[in-house]
Amino acid sequence: MTDLWNGEPAREWTSGPWSLELRDDEFADIAYEGSVVLRSIRAVVRDRNWDTARLVVDRVDSSGIALTLHVHSTGLGSALRGIVRAEVRGARRLRVLADLESASEFETNRTGLVALHPPALAGTAMDVRHPDGGVTRSRFPADISPHQPAFDIAGLSWSHDGVAVDVRFAGDVFEMEDQRNWTDASYKTYSRPLALQFPYALAPDERVVQSIEIAVSGTPTPAAEDPLTRIRLEEGPPLPAIAVSASTAPDPAPGFAPVGAAVLVELDLATRNWRAALDRAAASGLLLDVRFVLADDDPAAIDQAALALRDLPVARATAFPPTGPAQHVSDLAAIGHLRHALTEAGIAAEVVGGVRSHFTELNREHHRLPRGLDGIVFSITPLFHSLSSAQLIESIAMQRLVANQGVRLAGGRPLHIGPISLRPHFNSAATSPPPMPEHDDLRDGYGPALAEGSDPRQSAPELAAWTIASAAALAVPGVTTLAYFEEWGPRGLRTADGAALPALDAVEALAALTGEPGLRGDSPDGLVWALGARRADDDVVLVASLDRRARRVEIGLPDGTVRHVELAPGTFMRV
Fold first, then answer.
1. Please, where in the chain does CATH 3.20.20 lie?
2. At a CB cut-off of 8 Å and minimum separation 6, what does 448 contact?
């Protein structure tokens, strides 16, 4: 089996009733008699900025009872070597062991095993066993939990679909976080506890030895399979506007026709070339969605920035502090400075607020937002904890969850989601300063262009289907704008010389539906999605599949008519 997007090898390993997929260094979809009990177990090596060192698989040893990876880490100053092994212990037990040794001193925020629990466990009762022998009765959160749902973990137990699962953790104390905050399709149990100081140092020749043992009982409930995928669409409020982020790539800019209703531009007022970045964004002639990053050492910079917006079609603006307790959150002080600057400059744009980074921060810090905002903003980056294509595909169903919860947090105010990019447009967890441009112009680019924030799948044909599926998941009532990718460049809808990439077709198709009465529905499996618009002459529906196999889809419309379509893997169609 190969990965849909870029040919990453995926190897299936079975031992009696146990099975898993080996995806590079990850033991994925760990299943008992075909029922997935853990989404994944893998060893991770993260540096002081939470960046992840690559774990290279040097050799794989496989037998009927064990699958052993001989690995070494590379990059970020790490030098660990050892094994990660899955081994069956009787018919109903499987253990994963990591034994890694550091060849040199290494400052890390986390090195060891992490386990991912499937999102289907939402609302399921669980017992949390602690190192002192105590037990806490709890549940996997139904709503996305802003904070850790379980601490001080030595073991976890739950039952789902006929199977009772007991997991024991050894080698450290573990805790859990709700990774759906980052649109990851999982709850993650990890070590070491975040309450402890980090980074911490691994000494030369120090070993990290951890294990996760799974025990099961019961018989999985058989899942019924239907060869026909059915999606029911219901009529609702108008569909959101489609925006595109300004390119952050180095000059020269290619010539092209603008797409969408607006251009989103983030201007770091501590940089030398923010004026050049604003000029580039304004060249589209579209409405501007301006996100200011304030300058700690120059409080008056926001006043000059507001003056630069004169005579430009500014739809909305917000501001974020780069440091402090409200880092990357548009708190009362940041919005106060912005409002004053816009008023003095005579700018009548909407003032929105939220977070510069993931939904995570909105979920945790929304109490910092001042009253009277004209809208709420946050960004989406599916490739944050993992760079796998499986992660990218599985994030779509989680995007529906964050959109719905974001609308509730917005409390009736418009929700503007973006930038939506494959990889982060900045490192929200970094403890070191971001790279800064050396010139006043854009010869080196700015922002993500200086931080290697691109991904090779930006040019993949499947990204068009992913974009349609993402919009179908995110365009719930209350979402007013979706901002996808950049205009051009490594993170763009076009190449640096202006050639169209496959995702452009998807964004143009979505932009054509802006403001139309929406046709929305749920995906039956997170892989096939549909979104449409009611029109006087005929309804228009966009349907996308991210599956590895061809799918037959039946789309039910509000008037009772039914449309059928056959979708090839990783494609979308206008129906």
1. 241-514
2. 248, 421, 423, 424, 425, 426, 454, 491
Ranges of beta strands (E only) in 130-274 are 135-139, 150-153, 155-160, 163-170, 174-178, 187-190, 200-202, 207-218, 228-232, 234-238, 241-245, 262-268
CA atoms of 290 and 277, how far apart (whole Å): 11
Give Cα separations from 339 to 106, 304, 343, 476 (angstroms).
45, 13, 6, 29
Tokens standing for residue 569 = 């893997």
Angle, alpha carbons 225-231-237 (nearest 5°): 155
Q: Which helix (H) or strand (E) holds 339?
A: helix 332-345
CATH topology of domain 10-218: Beta-galactosidase; Chain A, domain 5 (2.70.98)
pLDDT digits (tens, 9 = 90+) for 101-142: 999 999 999 999 999 999 999 999 999 999 999 999 999 999
For domain 241-514, the question of CATH label 1.10.287 is answered with no
| CATH 2.70.98.10 in the chain, residue ranges | 10-218
3-state secondary structure of 312: coil
Report d(CA 570, CA 575) in Å as an integer.
Answer: 16
CB 475 within 8 Å of CB 518:
yes
Cα gap 79→76, rounded to integer Å: 9
Question: pLDDT digit string (tens) for 230-285?
Answer: 999 999 999 999 999 999 999 888 888 999 999 999 999 999 999 999 999 999 99
pLDDT in tens, 328-343: 999 999 999 999 999 9
Say what the pTM is. 0.94
Burial 267-281 (b: 16+ CB within 10 A, else e): bbbbbebbbbbbebb
Q: Radius of gyration over alpha carbons of the chain, in Å?
A: 24
CA proximity to 526, closest of 140, 9, 180, 190: 180
The percent helix, strand, coil of the chain (3-state, each to 5) is: 20, 40, 40
Bridge partners (DSSP) listed for residue 27: 22, 41
- Interatomic CA distance for residues 507 and 257, integer angstroms: 13
Q: How many CB atoms lie within 10 A of CB 333?
A: 15
Angle between helices 274-282 and 301-308 (to 10 degrees): 20
